[in-house]
Structures are given as C-alpha cells and as structure tokens.
Amino acid sequence: MPAQAKYLTGDSEGIRAFIDEFEVFLFDCDENFPPDAFCALAEDARRIGVLWSGEQVFEGIVETLELLRSKGKQIIFVTNNSTKSRADYKQKLTSMGIPATVDEVFGSSYSAAIYISRILQLPSDKRTVFVVGEAGIETELDSESIPHIGGTDPSLNRVIAKEDYVSIASGFSLDKHVGVVLCGLDFHVNYLKLSLAYHYLQRGALFLATNNDITLPSSSTLFPGAGACAAPLVAMMGGKQPTSLGKPSQAMMDAIEGKFRFERKKTCMVGDRLDTDIRFGIEGKLGGTLCVLTGVTRSKDEWEGEGVDTVPMAWVDKLGDLRG
Q: How many CB atoms lie within 10 A of CB 63?
C-alpha cells in the first residue's frame, strides 16, 4: 500500500524540511481544463495548472520560485507541448512575470532532440530525422545539430499526386539517411506526410513521438493532439507504439537527466495530474513528488480512493503555500 501523502499547507516546519530534502525541482507547466469545464459555458471554463490559470499567474508563484532559487535549488520547467521551442516557452513565462532562462525549460520537442543526439546510438549514415510536426520540433533538432526533413517544408503541404505513389514505393523520393520518424502535433498533417513517414518506418526507421496525448484541450473542448497525428502510423504498423518523449514516459526522464546530470533522489516533481506528473516522478524513482490542487487534481480523495496506487509524497492547496 502506498505511503500516505503529507499535507504541507500551513506547516512551516514541514515545508522547510521538504524543501531542504531536494536540490532540483521539476515544475509541470502544461495547461489543462478543470474536470467540469466541458459542462460549463465556454467563457467560464479556464485553463488550469500548477503555475497559472488562463493568463493569470497564481498568487505567490514568483515569490516561491525566488525562495527556491535563493536556497540554491535548480528549477526546471517541463511541458509536453511540442509546438513551442524552449525559447518560445521562455518568452511565455517571462511575459507572465515568471523569471526563466531558456536552459530552465525542457519541452517534449527538446526531450526528443536530446534523446536522439545523446542517448540513441544511430549509425553515421542514418542520423536524419523525418518530422511530422511543427517548427518547435525543428528548432530543437537544430539546437542539437540533428539533420531533419519534413515538418514545415511547404512542398509537403499539398494533395498527394499519382507520381508520388510510384516514387515513394520505389524509394526514389525517400532520403536514404533517415533513421528516425518523429511525430508531434502537426497542424498541417496530410496523406503525403503520413505516406512518407510510413515508408521510412517500413525501411527500418525508429518510431518516436514527442508525446502520446490523443487530445488537445482548447476553447473549452477537445481537439486532436499529438497522439492523434501518430495514430494512423500506429495502425499501419500493426499497433506498434512509438517511444514517447513526453510525460509520463521515462524516456523523457532519461533525456532530462542526460541534459542536467542531476541525482534523482535529490529531485522533486511538482504537478497537478496524478496520471502524468506524479506518475512521471514515481516511475522515474525521484526522491519526491508534490501535488498541487490548483489543477486537474482537486482533492486528496483522488489518491485516497480504493485501488489508487499513484500517491504523491506531499501535497499543498497551491504552490504559493511553500512560502510557509
């Protein structure tokens, strides 16, 4: 039976001891909708999370991050959003009044880039990546000097032609150096891109995904996510799933560790979702996990129920409570 989560809000001594236990804090910065959002009017449903709601930073967030930094703690912002580069996310954080550097942001696109460049041992003649996704992926592949094709190439934003079938089947229009197919959220996904991706996979390319999120919350409803873009390839490959580089996949944890070289037992994952954030930390064998109730998880009842095995080490009503 999992250990009982410790409630820290209002416990100054407990907060101090909890913070002192860790050297690194990973903060989820994905946006979600509250569980009842789809029953509410569109204008009333707000995106929620750990650091902000909609465009408003939660009270005490900036001060809490300053407190951790003043104690010498390393801060890393983690997101499954593959359409934005680290620079894009840094700009978003800064615009909301949250001090951050590019190096403190770790998105699923960068996770994939780190995984490909520093963990995979690709043959020297198979290091090109075929991208199904947006510019955020391409930017991060460039940051690791990884050659890539596909993605936002305007020549692929068209209806497949009769001659394409012949040239793809024969291999004439395929790049012989492609060793990886990387799928993310692609706002311009089409039959031609999927055909190319499939034939690279058929010829032995590794199948990676920035994340497996099937849906994307927006405007108080759901739209296709990165996992939906990869789904046709999964079906064509007989159900073979791509290696995911987003939460809660441990490939992402390996990539983060590969970048920052931290000690897992001295690291804490902070998030609002039991099934992604807290699970990510537990399965990654981090020293701790902290759940905040300003996001998807709204009550301790969600992990105290019968049969629930994903239990945070500690929890607070809101992240600002760490100020003591």
A: 12
Extract the residue ranges of the chain whose pLDDT is less than 50: 37-45
CA distance 8 to 184: 37
**pLDDT tens digits for 159-217?**
999 999 999 999 999 999 999 999 999 999 999 999 999 999 999 999 999 998 888 87
Q: What is the pLDDT of residues 11-36, one digit of tens each?
A: 999 999 999 999 999 999 876 655 55
Is 134 in the active site?
no
Token look-up 């940051």 returns 143
70 contact partners, CB below 8 Å, separation of at least 6: none
pLDDT at residue number 324: 82
Residue at 277: amino acid letter: D
In this structure, are residues 145 and 242 in contact, taking their beta carbons and an 8 Å threshold? no
Name the pairing type of β-strands 52-53 and 128-132: unpaired
Q: How far apart are CA 212 and CA 243, in angstroms?
A: 9
**Which parts of the chain are beta strand (E)?**
6-7, 24-28, 52-53, 56-57, 74-79, 105-107, 128-132, 148-150, 178-183, 206-209, 215-218, 221-224, 243-244, 267-271, 288-292, 314-316
The span from the CA of 117 to the CA of 96, in Å, is 32
Query: Using DSSP, how many helices (H) and how many strands (E) does the chain show?
Result: 11, 16
Which of 13, 21, 23, 144 is catalytic? The answer is 23
> Residue 88, Cβ neighbours under 10 Å: how many?
18
The confidence score (pLDDT) of residue 37 equals 47
Peptide bond connecting 248 to the previous residue in cis, omega within 30 degrees of 0: yes
